[in-house]
Design a protein that fits this description.
Layout: E1 12-14, E2 21-24, E3 36-38, E4 43-47, E5 59-61, E6 68-69, E7 80-82, E8 87-90, E9 103-105, E10 110-114, E11 126-128, E12 133-136, E13 148-150, E14 155-159, E15 171-173, E16 178-181, E17 195-197, E18 202-205, H1 226-231, H2 241-252, E19 270-275, E20 278-283, E21 292-294, E22 299-303, E23 316-318, E24 323-326, E25 340-342, E26 347-350, E27 364-366, E28 371-375, E29 395-397, H3 405-417, H4 429-451, H5 456-474
Parallel strand pairs: 1-3, 2-4, 3-5, 5-7, 6-8, 7-9, 8-10, 9-11, 10-12, 11-13, 12-14, 13-15, 14-16, 15-17, 16-18, 17-21, 18-22, 21-23, 22-24, 23-25, 24-26, 25-27, 26-28, 28-29
Antiparallel strand pairs: 19-20
């Protein structure tokens, strides 16, 4: 490495997948022209001050190393910074958030403390801070200028802030924290959301019905400011992350023609989301196929809004492990692209709408552990679903649960016939007769047992019987 530290005309340097150790650039380096430094998957333990003169550096990747300590105070000027999967700790300097990053990835470290409330980073495209130990509330300013905000698996608390309207955010991931309170209706103003993940918090209240205002992949009728997309480095206001990565070459790597390479492949965009009972990582072209909403494992109550059926492009919907009540909305039949619906572990009642058989791409439909009744649809994709999707619903019938719907209807008719006309509680007469007979049998056996013992009660009983017999003889 020392041989190249004086190459002042070096534009890009890749050191990935080696076994380099110690501090990277612990000595001053004359790399004034360096624009791209990729040193991921090594064993570097620290960051020296040797890059202080590399003012043109815009892409810096030190992910998957053994970095320790805190982030150097001299950091600045980078547009793309990957420092994930290390053991960096301490608080993040607030000055770091005032740098106009296009991508900042500090995920899977040991950062702690609170997130800076004076965040004013203009046009920060992608912000990955997941799997750290951040505490405190989520600053409302954090969402002003981002396309992706990933705060999953921290120790954040408080309520979800009323984020300012941001028509350009695509992914909002807040799962695995201890956020409380209601889901704010201000989330309905985030028109371009593709994935909204609030899984595993302590949110309560009802699900906002206005979520049908969010696109989740649909084309909505609102005007996009073409200059805003350009400020993110996206030509023509295109929100797509793939276009974002391609624009990186033209805007930030203005290399001589003989050195021109396609560096967009180095841009690692990913979104992790639970769909079809799997926790998948979506990258590259798969971004175009993930539209999902996950409110599972909270304390939500009330009915499921029928307006969710307006989200035709939704591919994954998870509302499991809450206290949602009421019916399964028939409007779900409008979710024409849906692949996974998980409503398990709630208190839903009524029947499963048979018009859901129109869902041609449905792979998962889990309604286990509810209070559903009636017949299970037996057409379309429902033919491929086994009984694990329905367990914990004793009044469901159909072939998946090996329960005849004829028997189920007969039982229901009996219960209806025994129900009092004045609206009282139903009485099962068969059980009543069995109980009455058992009571008489117990009394009779007890009486016979008493007669088997020589006691004053036994002698008195026999004298009474003799007197009764003599009385009849006299007559």
């Amino acid at each position: 490495m020392k041989l190249l530290t004086s190459c002042y005309k070096l534009f890009t340097w890749k050191l990935s997948y080696n076994s380099f150790t110690g501090q990277i650039f612990s000595q001053p380096a004359k790399l004034e022209s360096l624009m791209v430094l990729i040193a991921d998957n090594n064993q570097f333990t620290g960051i020296g001050d040797g890059l202080l003169n590399s003012t043109g550096l815009v892409y810096f990747d030190l992910s998957n190393n053994l970095l320790q300590g805190v982030i150097p105070s001299w950091f600045g000027g980078f547009h793309f910074m990957y420092f994930s999967v290390s053991v960096l700790k301490g608080t993040i300097p607030s000055s770091l958030f005032n740098i106009p990053f296009k991508l900042l990835d500090l995920s899977r470290n040991k950062f702690s403390g609170s997130l800076p409330s004076n965040f004013s980073g203009r046009h920060m495209g992608l912000l990955y801070l997941h799997d750290n130990e951040f505490r405190g509330p989520v600053p409302s300013t954090l969402l002003e200028n981002v396309m992706l905000l990933d705060l999953r698996n921290n120790k954040l608390s408080g309520t979800i802030p009323h984020f300012v309207s941001n028509r350009y955010i695509l992914y909002l991931l807040l799962s695995g924290n201890t956020l409380t309170g209601h889901i704010p209706t201000s989330l309905c103003d985030l028109k371009s959301i593709k994935v909204l993940d609030l899984y595993n918090n302590k949110l309560n209240g009802s699900i906002p019905s206005c979520l049908n205002n969010v696109s989740f992949g649909r084309s909505l009728d609102y005007e996009i400011d073409p200059n805003h997309g350009d400020s993110f480095g996206i030509a023509g206001g295109d929100n797509d992350l793939e276009a974002y990565s391609m624009s990186f070459v033209s805007r930030f790597l203005d290399l001589p023609l003989e050195f021109y390479l396609d560096y967009s492949g180095y841009l690692d965009f990913s979104v992790e989301f639970t769909s079809k009972r799997r926790y998948d990582s979506y990258t590259g072209e798969s971004f175009d196929f993930i539209f999902g909403l996950d409110f599972s494992d909270n304390e939500l109550s009330g009915e499921i809004p029928r307006e969710l059926g307006d989200l035709q492009k939704m591919r994954a919907l998870n509302l499991s492990y809450n206290s949602l009540s009421g019916l399964v909305p028939e409007s779900f039949s409008n979710l024409t692209d849906i692949e996974s619906i998980d409503l398990s572990s709630n208190v839903l009642n009524g029947s499963i709408p048979h018009n859901l058989t129109k869902l041609d791409y449905l792979v998962i439909f889990n309604v286990s552990h509810n209070n559903l009744s009636g017949s299970i649809p037996s057409q379309g994709k429902f033919l491929t679903l086994d009984e694990t999707n329905y367990i914990g619903n004793p009044f469901l019938c159909g072939s998946p649960v090996n329960r005849s719907c004829d028997d189920n209807n007969t039982t229901s008719e009996k219960e209806t016939n025994y129900r009092r006309k004045d609206g009282g509680v139903a009485i099962d007469m068969e059980m009543f007769y069995w109980s009455l007979g058992a009571s008489y049998s117990v009394i009779l056996v007890t009486f016979i047992v008493f007669l088997c013992f020589d006691s004053s009660w036994r002698r008195a009983w026999f004298r009474l019987v003799d007197a009764f017999i003599n009385c009849f003889k006299c007559v």
